DNA sequence: TCGTTGTCCGTACGGGTGTCCGGGTATTCC
DNA sequence: GGAATACCCGGACACCCGTACGGACAACGA
């Protein structure tokens, strides 16, 4: 951190509002944790993997790539990230590896942040929807 | 797209599940739109700006930096991004610029994706709050 | 009028992220 | 056993994103 620049705005313009915000504001750590979770699903491939697993219950990597119509490498990378974060679980049967949502997957994340948002971005915000 | 590699997995292992996933899956464009919105709030500074504006109703840039205890540049950049996306609105009074959530701000985004998530990540099953 | 304050803008830089590509491993069929 | 399949891994590359910094502008107070 540099101190060359003087601390700006020494006197709050509205001290009361600042105090209220400060007191009810999530800490930087909490915000970082939330941001981390959101970053995980802020990717078309990863979110669609979660959508697909939510719909199909269980899929292997190849079928997942087929369903999403994307490269298998992309699916592999997305699954690695999601698996590292503990959001998906895998089961091996012979030479095929099946993936599903983790048993303790936070459902609010899927319901509120994905399914609801896809409906939200489609219609009300005056988006050009065919 | 390259075709050097042979198309893997020509025959689905479980055609029915693939078909079901394919049919109920958001399109790549929809997923990209959702990812875009989520990316906007997948940043500690930006999300805390939204939290603060939700709590305090209206704040100027300097007070915002004071409340979040971050550099003023960071707040400025966050506000620029949020403003470009149309998530916040500003009002100029003299030389002070006040920011607030945009009139048509999608409340589900804030309620479901931010406030609820911060409670979720803090303690898996505890709600202490608003 | 002149200096100061609050905010915006453009640019350059460091770091993180996704994709491409090679090779590697385990399992099944002949 | 040997070949083929389905998947995993790790490095290399380009790209985007957030930050820092300097300058610019408008608005107040003297």
UniProtKB/TrEMBL annotation, chains A, B:
Ligase keyword on record: no
Stated name of the protein: DNA-binding transcriptional regulator, ArsR family
SMART domains assigned to the protein according to its UniProt record, in alphabetical order: HTH_ARSR (SM00418)
Species of the source: Geodermatophilus pulveris
Keywords, ordered alphabetically: DNA-binding, Transcription, Transcription regulation
SUPFAM superfamilies: Winged helix' DNA-binding domain
Presence of keyword Iron: no
Gene Ontology MF annotations: DNA binding; DNA-binding transcription factor activity
Domain HTH arsR-type as annotated: residue spans: 26-121
Pfam families: HTH_5 (PF01022)
Range of residues in the leader sequence: none
Domain of life: Bacteria
């Amino acid at each position: 951190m540099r101190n060359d620049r003087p601390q700006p705005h020494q006197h709050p313009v509205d001290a009361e509002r600042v105090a209220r915000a400060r007191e009810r504001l999530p800490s930087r750590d909490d915000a970082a944790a939330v941001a981390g979770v959101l970053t995980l699903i802020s990717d078309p491939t990863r979110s669609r993997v979660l959508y697909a697993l939510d719909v199909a219950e269980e899929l292997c990597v190849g079928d997942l790539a087929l369903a999403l119509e994307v490269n298998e490498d992309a699916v592999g990378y997305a699954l690695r990230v999601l698996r590292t974060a503990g959001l998906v679980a895998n089961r091996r049967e012979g030479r095929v590896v099946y993936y599903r949502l983790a048993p303790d997957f936070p459902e609010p994340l899927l319901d509120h942040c994905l399914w609801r948002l896809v409906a939200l971005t489609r219609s009300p915000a005056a988006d050009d929807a065919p």
